[in-house]
Every structure is written in structure tokens, then in C-alpha cells.
Amino acid sequence: MVGSPSRPIDENVSALQHSLKNRFAYVSKARANIWLTTGVTLFLFGLVFSTVVVGRNASTPDYASAPRGTFLTTGPGMEGPTQVAPAIDNGFVFDAAGAVGSNIRYMVDWGDGGAVVDATSANTSKLTLTHTYARVGSFTITVKAAFAGTDGFSVPSTRAITVTASQRAALNLLAAAIDASTPASHKVKAAQVDVLFTSIQFSASSQSDVTLKSLSVAAPLGDPVTTFGKVTIYSGGVAVGTGVFAPGETDGAAQAVVSLGAGLTIPGGNATTLQIKADVLPGAPGGNFALGVAGLTSEPNSSVLDLPLYGKAMLIVAQ
User: Fold this and answer.
1) pLDDT tens-digit profile of 103-119?
2) Element (H or E) spanning 161, and its range?
3) How many Å apart are CA 55 and CA 69, to the nearest integer?
């Protein structure tokens, strides 16, 4: 017997085995391709991520852990005024350029003999400080910077500051307020003299004595030119100046400029109360009137933010 004849079932089994072998080979190859693709993707993602992080750290390094001896290569920048007035706060911004997001230690010498300021910024290269110069003169601000936690200070930067007497004119050396002795609103008959309308307290700051030279008395209601005669300023019961209302030359507002002669000096840190009295003309037309101070002149020249100030409105009753 040479051999058994081939049976159909055997041929089917062989074909099935061959088909399964091909399918397993395809699945294995596909799985290998998946792993390869995943690996390449993860590799590329890691490469891009590390490049972004390293690049970001390279442009904005974390100097909080910088070793001692790490130096800022240039002196810090400085923004602020070059001309200031004495006895007021002045703001300055210091910036160690190129150290964005870092804590920077600044040493600032204001140049006026005061203590050197040692201050550190918080998560920024910029630091804002204020300083008050007490006297007139020329000063030089000197600042140097270092990364926080290091002693590697930069070369110093400087800025010239001039505190001039002329700038003092911008200071508010005077404060004004209505005094409690100002009378309440009431009726005033025409043809009365020395009627008290307003009491104003002027206070000089502790920075300097102030001498009042003149007051501009104004009336915001009615026509004071046809209502009032002489206007008198009193200090401590003594008349220190008189004037009369005249039509305004620019805006039509009538004012009585009252000269205080040689001047009324208010010592620094003190106050004085001035009373405004006026004669009511016999032919006054009547109506509501209030008197007060719209402006003043002084030495040194001082601005008063509280002006103008007016007393209570009085009802002038015509005869």
C-alpha cells in the first residue's frame, strides 16, 4: 500500500491552518507597528516638551536658587522725577532688566545722608519705592541690584535729583476750613455796618511759616457791587485789611481784593481765624448773599485746595 488517498477533510484542515497562520502573522505585525508608532509619538512629544521647558527656563531663569557670586551684568534702570519739591513723597521704580519673574535685591542710597534702603522685589524684577527729601539741594540717587540670595551686586546706576526752592510753590502749605464762629443763616437789614458773614480758619503746615498778603473775597450769589460797601478782614478782633467789590475783569465774578498790608504771618504748625465783615449799602436790592474767600496770595507762594470757602447765605432785606 503506497499511501492513503487524500481526504477532503484533511485538505480543509490544512487550508484552515494556513489561514490562521497568516492571520496571526498579520496581527503580530500590526501590534508591532502600533508599539512602534506609540514609541515614536512619545519620543517626539518628550522632545518637544523638553525643548519648550528648557527654552523657557533659559529665557526666564529661576534665580531664587542662583549660586552666590552670580552677578547681574548691568546696573538697574530707574524711573522717576528729576526735579522734586521738599517734604513730599516722590515715587521711583527700579528695574533689573532681563531678570523677569525673579526676586531682585536692591540697595538704594538716596544721596541725602539718610539710611540706605535694602529691599527685595517679589516675583518681579521691578521695585517701587518712595522717598521724601527734607531740604532744598542737589542729590544723586545710587542703586545697585543682585539676585535674591546672592551677594553679586551689579555696577551701580545713578540719577541726579534737584530739590529747588521754586518747586516749593507747588506745595499746599495752607489748609482752610470754615470756623465754628461762622453765623447761621439769618436776615440782615440794609444799611448795617460790619456785619459778620464768615469766619475761616487758616492752618500752616509744620514745614514753614506762611505770611498771608491778600485775600480775594467773593460772593457766589447776587450782585455784591450794588449790595456791599466796605469789606473788612479781622484777626483777633483787630481789622487787618479792607477792600471793596469791583466787577470781575475776566469771568464777570465780582471780588473784593483785601490787602493785608505788611502781611499776616501764620507760624508753621499753627492756625489763625479770620473774620469777613461787610457794610450793607442802604439801597441794597435785597436777596440771598454769602461771602467767603476765593483765593489768596502768600509768601512763600502756597496753593490751598480747600478754596473757595463760603459762609451761610444771609437774606438781605431791602429798606
Assistant:
1) 889 999 999 988 999 99
2) strand 157-163
3) 24
The fold for domain 77-170 equals Immunoglobulin-like (2.60.40)
Between CA 141 and CA 84 the distance in angstroms is 13
Angle at 186 (CA atoms; ends 185, 192), nearest 5 degrees: 120
Rounded to whole angstroms, the maximal C-alpha distance in the chain is 163
Segment 259-262 long-range contacts (CB within 8 Å, at least 24 positions apart): 259/213, 259/214, 260/212, 260/213, 260/214, 260/215, 260/233
Buried b (16+ CB within 10 A) or exposed e, 285-316: ebeebbbbbbebbbeeebebeebebbbebbeb
> What phi and psi values does residue 17 have, to the nearest 5 degrees?
-60, -40
pLDDT at 52 (0 to 100): 42
Residues constituting the chain: 319
pTM for the model stands at: 0.49
**CATH code that applies to domain 174-317:** 2.60.40.10
Ranges of each domain in the chain: 77-170, 174-317
Distance CA 15, CA 317 (A): 130
291-to-21, 258, 303 alpha-carbon distances in Å: 114, 13, 20
